[in-house]
Every structure is written in C-alpha cells, then in structure tokens.
Amino acid sequence: MNIIKTHIGKIKVFLLVFTLTSLLTRSYSQNCLPEGITFERQGQIDSFPTLYPGCTQIDGAIDIHEITAGGIINLDSLIYLSNTGSSLQIYGNTLLNDLSGLSSITTIGGNLAFEYNYQLTSLDGLESLNSINGHLDIGFHPLLADLSALSGVQSINGQLIVKNCNSLTSLVGLENIDYNSIERLEIQNCYFLSKCDVAAVCDFLTLGTNDYQISSNGTGCTSADQIESFCNGCPSNGMYFYSQNQIDSFPINFPGCVQIIGNVTIDDAVQGDIQNLDGLTQLEKITGQLNIQNNNALVNITGLQHLGDIEGMLNINNNASLTSLVGLDNLITNSISELLIQNCPNLSVCNITSVCTYLSNAPFPSTISGNAPGCESRGQILTYCNDSDGDEIIDSLDNCVFVSNPLQEDIDNDSIGDICDYDSVNNFGVGTDHPVSKLHVAGGIAFIDNNNGSLLMRSPDNSCWILKVSNTGELTVLKVPCPD
C-alpha cells in the first residue's frame, strides 16, 4: 500500500514540475504591448519583468525618454527582450551611460534612434543586434567615442545618420552593414571624426548616385571625395616626391587614388632624376599646397592634366628646364590661395586658362619673376592671355584678332587671316575701302554675312565692343581693344 502511495506521489510531483516547466516556457516566449510603451522613469523599467512576465518582444514602438533629469539611469530590467516589432528610440536621458540591459536584442523591427543621451560613451550592450528594419540614427552625444558594439549589424532599411558626436573618432562598428540596405547617408558635425573609410560607407559612396550629406567632420571625413580617397588607400599626410621612381610608382602604390590629403611637394633629391610627372595623371585633388621646385630636368608637367583642385598655394620655383605650365589648365582658380612662379629661366608659356583667370582677379596675390619672356611678370602674362575673338589664339599671335579663326587660314600668306583679309573677293562695306565681310541692306534691314555673326561697335566713351550671336540666337558682348 505504501509503495502505491509513494508511486502516486512521484507521479504528482512529475506532473507539477512538467506543468510549471510548460508554463515558464510559454511565459518566456510571449509578445506583448502591440500599442507600444514609453518608459519615463526608472521605476517603470525596473517593474517591467513583473508587470509583463515572459514578454520577450514588444510589438509596438518603444520610447525610452525621461521626464525629469536623471530619471533613467540604466536599462537592466529589459534584459529579457530579444527583439522589437517596431521602432526603439532612446533619447534625452541625461545620466544613462550603459545599454547593457539590451544585450539580448537581436532584431529591431523599425527605426533605431539614439539622441541626447549626454553621458553615453559607447553603445556597449548591443553586441547581439544584427538587423534593423528602418533608420539607424545616432546623434547629439558629446561623450560617445565608440560604435564598435554595432559590428554585428548586417542590414538596415533606411537612413544611416551619425551627427553631432564630438568625441567620436571612428565609424568602426558600421563596417558590416550591407550598403544596399542604406537609403541615405548623413555624417555631420563630428569634429574629431577622421576614420570614415569603413566598408559599408566606402561601398555606398562608390555607387556615385546615392544620396548623402557629409560635412564639418575631421580630416578624412570632411567630404565624400575625401572619404573615397581614404577608401582607395590614398596618402593622408601629404606627399613628398623626391625621385622619378616615386612618381612612376604612385599608381602602383595607390591604385585608384585621385586625392592626396595634405601638401604635395615635387623636389628632386638627385638633380636630373625627375623628368616628367606622368605617373600622377590619376590625381584630381590636393587638399593643401602644391610645390614644384628645384627640378633641373623637369621639362613639362602635363602629367597633372586631371588635377582640378588644390587648397592652398601653387608654388612653381627654380625648375631650370621647364618651358610650359600646360598640365595645370584645369585647376579651379578659386582653389588657389596664392600663386608663385619664379626662377624658371626657360618658362615662357604661362598663359594657360587657370593662370590667366587667376591673374585677372586683381586681389589674388601673386609673385612672378625670373622666368623667360612671356612669363616675366603678371602684366606680361595677362597680355599673352588676351584673346579678343575667343578662338583660343592670343591676340599677339592671332592673324585676325577680332574674328574667330582657330585654324588661322591664310591662303595668300600675307599674315592676315582669310576671314578678315581686306583683299577677300565679294566683300562690301560702307565708309571703308577695305570691307572684311559681306553686307546686304534691303527693306531697312542690314544683313552681315560672315561665319561669326559679329559686329564691332564703339561706345560713346570710345570703348570698343564686339556683339556676337550664337547658333541658338544668344547675344554676347565682349570688350576689346579698338582697332586703329
């Protein structure tokens, strides 16, 4: 009889344990709060496991935002949450410095946003997170210095925003996000942020057509171009080229690099070694000054033909064999802070577009001396820059100064271009014995027949102007020296 009672007792205990185990299993795999929840006080967070036992997923939006300063100091009691069905926003919590209470979360069902948590120094506690089905927004954290806890995140579904985090120096932690899941990129006002060349950002920017806003960060992250330079392994502390081999090796050592961060100096250490800059043809931008100096055998600089922007002084000095500045034609004038062209005794061609445009602005500082005729002074270069008819042949060499004739045809070899030769057949004029174009007047309408559709007129102050008409009917007026 006792044996039977004992056996029945064991069965009851087993059934009780089984029932409790089943209840506990169900209780710790429940969804809850489809309408979401807002945590405004530490007490609400601390009581969450008691009020919602077994809740591992909150289906609605979660806002963690204190209503009084210092009202929320930790998230420890949210440790059983494994994912969210909607957005998670943590903002405006002045003393919160730890996210360890979120260490079980793997998936965010909507946006994930952190803002104005002034004591937050890292995102430690989010190491289990791997997916965000919305924006990732991190902003206004003066002490946040580390994003590495996000290295497990493989995808988002919206904007990636990092802004106003003045202690942040690196985006390491965002590298594993699939760039195809990023709809827009914003990196702004993180003044010490210098490492942005993580894989996700690099791949996103490589597409070229994506939407981004990047500004006011540290060197290395000031613009999309700068980040891409680092992505391509570009130099970040300037470059000093002292040999031909170093120049020739640039595209090998820095494949795809179009920008050098910092000053660039080309200065031959062994005189006669540097003869050309052809190895720098991929270079498009220098974020500093450009010095080309002390190169006795350098004949031309055409290897810089794709360079469009520098951010400092252009210094060309003491290059004994240099004859022309062709190669710097595409430099944006406003990117040059000061122009020095000195002590190049064979340099005679300085009237390239970028130099002419720079020198035509009187306030722009320049020092020009010790060069060959044509490049001996600012005024001399500007004289050679004049091209009254816009045919890219300066007036001093043009056989027809006021009428565009880029091919310089001169069938009778009299040094007067055919298009304006006074002896041309069938020209007709009024008040001149040497008409330069065909003129027809009928019904009060004067028709000037030449290939350029131009008319030279003198204004009341004795200035001369050329009126031109384009193929689309647009009129342009150009002031020119008056003919004799």
Structure summarized in a few sentences:
The protein is of the alpha/beta class and 484 residues long.
Describe the structure.
Strands 2-4-6-8-10-11-12-13 form an eight-stranded parallel sheet. It is an alpha/beta fold. A hairpin with a 2-residue loop joins strand 23 and strand 24. It contains nine helices and 27 strands.
Helices, strands, pairings?
Elements: H1 2-27, E1 30-32, E2 37-39, H2 42-46, H3 48-51, E3 55-58, E4 62-64, E5 83-84, E6 88-91, E7 107-108, E8 112-115, E9 131-132, E10 136-139, E11 158-163, E12 182-188, H4 199-206, E13 211-215, H5 224-231, E14 239-241, H6 244-248, H7 250-253, E15 259-260, E16 264-267, E17 285-286, E18 290-293, E19 309-310, E20 312-317, E21 336-342, H8 353-359, E22 366-369, H9 378-385, E23 438-442, E24 445-449, E25 454-458, E26 464-469, E27 475-480
Parallel strand pairs: 1-3, 2-4, 3-5, 4-6, 5-7, 6-8, 7-9, 8-10, 10-11, 11-12, 12-13, 14-16, 15-17, 16-18, 17-19, 18-20, 20-21, 21-22
Antiparallel strand pairs: 23-24, 25-26, 26-27
Helix pairs in contact: 4-5
CATH class (first level) name of the largest domain: Alpha Beta
- Uncertain stretches of 5 or more adjacent residues: 1-28
- Give the C-alpha Rg: 36 Å
Q: What would CATH call the architecture of the largest domain?
A: Alpha-Beta Horseshoe
Give a quick account of the main beta sheet: strands, pairing sense, barrel closure.
8 strands, parallel
Strand order of the largest sheet: 2-4-6-8-10-11-12-13
Helix content: 10-25%
Which structural class best describes the helix and strand composition?
Answer: alpha/beta
CATH topology of the largest domain: Leucine-rich repeat, LRR (right-handed beta-alpha superhelix)
What is the count of DSSP helices, taking H or I runs of 4+ residues? Answer: 9
Strand percent estimate: 15-25%
Domain count: 3
The total strand number stands at 27
Q: Kindly state the mean pLDDT as a whole number?
A: 86
Coarse morphology: elongated
How far do the termini sit from each other? Answer: 140 Å
